[in-house]
Specification:
Helices cover 33% and strands 19% of the residues. It is of the alpha/beta class. The chain has two domains: 3-90, no CATH class; 94-356, Aldolase class I (TIM Barrel, Alpha-Beta Barrel), CATH 3.20.20.70. A hairpin with a 2-residue loop joins strand 8 and strand 9 (118-125).
């Protein structure tokens, strides 16, 4: 088994954490070691041999992996045999495990969340889009005040378990209303200016400064606002799926935006933000390998870094019982996509190594069991 296969098997199959392992980890008063906000991040982030980052769902049965302790160190077992690698944990933040709250009783983890070395600010609770596989559909829509976000952000910055190094402004898509766009535009400006010591990344769909602006001029104006005025460093503009039939079925709101608008927006973003500064996620496992690779090709042609995310059937969503892709399917798709990216003199994203914990990446080397 190589590191790529090991990472994917851990992501898809999870691991049992023994009582001995749990004692060494950060946990709350009930013994909980994880907090799930999104299906792809609900788990423990581990580092294999100090270089391979992986999100491991906590499982109590149905997995061949086990995290245990041997000679006062965490170890990883596969079918009860020790895998000869170093294994360490990046803890879930204390504010999430303990459900810390703001002065108005809002849980901090509803507004910010730290994964690996990055904290995510979520200005929108819920989402105006309704993607069938997304857990945001369960949440009511609410636009969070900047003051609340700032309070939560400062708690995350000072967390005793995990202090972040960079910042993503993400969460749900705002309503297509003048006031909603103006509000979130102000948030994009506020945080990079107040906290210039951090690099800021924004995840969003194609849009202009105001609703219903879809011309290249509109896109150009908004992208220059983010880059020149706000100081945002990188963007994530997620295509999600390539096949139009599946886009209509699974991501109807994004399908309504149109793939061509995604490509035009991404092309202009690459022009403004620079090479390797724009990425786009594709969900692997809902369409054919050919469709996913066509999506990879389209993104590479825009100068964009493709990010491959394995489909995870999340409880409580419309697709909770939809079959997850096999590790073999993920491996084959990833290796072909990686070859395509290298031929284009680009690479699969994200570039930040810790942020690859929930993405499909090609890792070098074989492991010994």
């Amino acid at each position: 088994m190589d590191y790529t296969e090991l990472k994917l098997r851990l992501m898809q199959q999870g691991a049992k954490f023994t009582a001995a392992a749990r004692k060494t980890m950060c946990h709350n008063r009930f013994g909980h070691i994880t907090f799930s906000d999104y299906a792809t991040t609900g788990g423990i982030v581990a580092v294999l041999d100090k270089r391979v980052y992986v999100n491991i769902p906590e499982k109590f049965q149905g997995t061949s992996f086990e995290v245990d302790v041997f000679e006062d160190k965490l170890i990883l077992k596969y079918h009860n045999r020790i895998i000869k690698i170093s294994f360490c944990i990046i803890p879930v933040p204390k504010y999430a495990l303990d459900v810390e709250r703001l002065s108005d009783n809002t849980p901090v983890r509803e507004l910010v969340m730290t994964h690996a070395d990055r904290v995510r600010i979520s200005p929108v609770h819920g989402c105006s889009y309704h993607c069938n596989f997304c857990t945001s559909n369960e949440a009511y829509y609410k636009e969070i005040l900047c003051e609340q976000l700032d309070q939560a952000f400062n708690i995350a910055l000072n967390d005793p378990y995990n202090k972040p190094c960079h910042v993503l402004i993400s969460g749900g898509t705002p309503n297509e209303e003048i006031n909603s766009y103006a509000w979130i535009n102000d948030i994009y400006y506020y945080f990079p200016h107040k906290y210039p010591q951090f690099d800021f990344d924004v995840m969003l769909s194609p849009r202009g400064m105001r609703p219903e602006q879809t011309s290249m001029k509109d896109y150009d104006e908004f992208l220059h606002y983010l880059y020149d005025e706000c100081g945002v460093k990188t963007l994530s503009v997620n295509l999600e799926l390539y096949n139009d039939r599946f886009r209509d079925r699974f991501i109807p709101d994004k399908a309504a935006v149109g793939k061509d608008n995604y490509y035009r927006f991404i092309l202009q973003a690459v022009e403004i933000f620079g090479e390797k500064s724009v990425r786009s996620s594709l969900v692997v496992g809902l369409e054919s390998e050919e469709d996913t690779l066509n999506g990879v090709r389209a993104l590479l042609d825009c100068g964009c870094l493709p990010v491959l995310s394995a489909f995870v059937p999340a409880p409580g969503t419309d697709m909770a019982n939809y079959p997850a892709p096999s590790v073999e399917f993920l491996l084959e798709t990833a290796r072909k996509a990686n070859d395509m990216a290298r031929e284009a003199k680009l690479q699969l994203g994200p570039l930040c190594r810790p942020c690859t914990h929930n993405s499909i990446t090609i890792e070098e080397g074989e492991i010994v069991i």
